[in-house]
Write a structure and sequence with these properties.
This protein is an alpha/beta fold. Helices cover 35% and strands 13% of the residues. It folds into three domains: 216 residues, NADH-ubiquinone oxidoreductase 51kDa subunit (Rossmann fold, 3-Layer(aba) Sandwich); 80 residues, Ubiquitin-like (UB roll); 87 residues, NADH-ubiquinone oxidoreductase 51kDa subunit, iron-sulphur binding domain (de novo design (two linked rop proteins), Up-down Bundle), CATH 1.20.1440. The strands form three sheets. The protein has a seven-stranded mixed beta sheet with strand order 1-2-8-7-13-9-10, with helices on both faces. The chain has a four-stranded parallel beta sheet with strand order 5-4-3-6, sandwiched between helices. α13 runs antiparallel to α14. 55% of the residues are buried.
Amino acid sequence: MSQPRDSYPQTSQDNYQDSYQGRQHNGHQDAYTPVPRQGPGGSYRDGIQDSIRQEPRLLAAGPDAGWARHLDTFGQWEPQAAGPGLLEVLAESGLTGRGGAAFETWRKATATAGTGRKGLFAARPVVIANGAEGEPLSFKDRTLLAHAPHLVIDGLIALAAALGQTGGRTSSQTSAGGTSMYVYAPAASLPRVKQALGERPGGKKIRVVQAPETFISGESSAVVNMIENGTALPTDQRRRLSESGLNGRPTLVVNVETLAQVALIARYGAQWFRQAGTATDPGTRLVSMSGPAFTRDVVLEVPGGVQLSAVLKEAGMDPGSLSAVLVGGYHGRWVRPADLALTPAGAPGRAVRPGAGVIHALDLQTCGIQATARILNYLAGQSARQCGPCMFGLPAMASVLNRIAGGETNPRLSSELDRLGRLVSGRGACRHPEGTTGMVSSALEVFAADFRAHLSGYCTVPGGVAA
């Protein structure tokens, strides 16, 4: 499996080449094209989005956009002034989270704001911009923080203002109505984030915390645990973070791309946002594209409901030359490169959930079982080791899958892998075991013929061997 996290887009403008598809740098391609201040156009229909052609929104200011170019592209704007009525606008927009779960953004924010109003003394809310991106195949959030940090910060301030004012405070107390703000991101992103905060008025009020380079460091309770206690491990949440999060305060953890979308919606409105995508999956999303060695790792901005095959073609891949595609990352699903809509709102069999915005393709010369085994080995080693499913279940599954990948001709191994997956799923202290077993379950389905071949002692990959 490729590991694109080792080389992210840098903050230099050298070697960028302007084109409709984007500007290439260090093996990554990011979709940039200047966009009018009133917001780009676009259209949708009630079915599936056939075309990927979408005027860039999130990366419209171009590479390494500083404060001046950010304002020149999007216009002068006071994000804290967007607080009143913002949650209602977000509800109308239909924005869902871009970090993986695709939960409605306005519902999460409203729950946090509602908790802050309870009691004799209203608790000050906390909003955390989550850019941890522990997913090994994901680099979209780091690309966004490198090239459009001000859009993320705009969204953070606007949402914090909405929570602070909804909680009964006025914007005169702080620029975000009394709400505390954090940016949580890996070491590679921190210099750019700090530079952006230093460029803008009031940036020092936002605290920056380094996220460890682990798979589970971006889980919401792990984010709060790291900021509060210095340990990026999920906690057993008897109470929701919206009720009792950082230091017991109502806390909202939001993916950085989601916050950038919030900033655009606050600027241009819900109807503008819905001009892209479909009625049930409005707007755009960033996807991290990777695949065979001959293709570049690329970040694309695509409309909601777009065909997976169209996205693959835009990234320079021929769906006919691929054996399978992992959609959603290591906690996603394997699918065949068929005509599926990339959306969290589609029907099973006709759509695949984008999850963390990761699309990784396998060519016909790569064994899907061996690729899945490598992923499972990684995930078993990345657990919090705080519950039985993580400590014992995932390593046991990895052991069985390694035996199958190695060509052991025991016909019971496939059913044993399925049995272990059903035992582990839904029983962990966090969603890590469930996400892992979901990926393995999809492999058992998509690579069914390959499993039968390996259990017979051979590999279906041309020239491949199971052992």
